[in-house]
Amino acid sequence: xxxxxxxxxxxxxxxxxxxxxxxxxxxxxxxxxxxxxxxxxxxxxxxxxxxxxxxxxxxxxxxxxxxxxxxxxxxxxxxxxxxxxxxxxxxxxxxxxxxxxxxxxxxxxxxxxxxxxxxxxxxxxxxxxxx
Length: 131
Description:
The protein is elongated. It is mainly alpha-helical and 131 residues long. The chain starts with 8 loop residues before the first helix and ends with a helix. The chain has helices at residues 9-22, 35-42, 46-58, 76-102, 107-121, 123-130, and strands at residues 62-65, 69-72.
């Protein structure tokens, strides 16, 4: 995994876990990699992964079954969605709007580009919308 120098690694790992849940790779109740397995897979210190898992336990995204391991909680999808929406609204959106202002742009300037990117990312929806 490549990490962004601008943001704490444990938060970037939390985003990755949430993405796995929101994309359906990990479903509610699924066992997820242990702290050690995750640390080896993404080449970070196990303490960093433990910090991530602790955060996600607090958010209700993960659950811990003592002696068995970590699991996506029964409400993992809903809680991950809420967490990621909050992160977007509080971290990413302000940064995005600041960049627009600095470039002298507004949302109308990027509306067409958003449409193009949406079509590339989800051609099925585009096809459904045309019918």
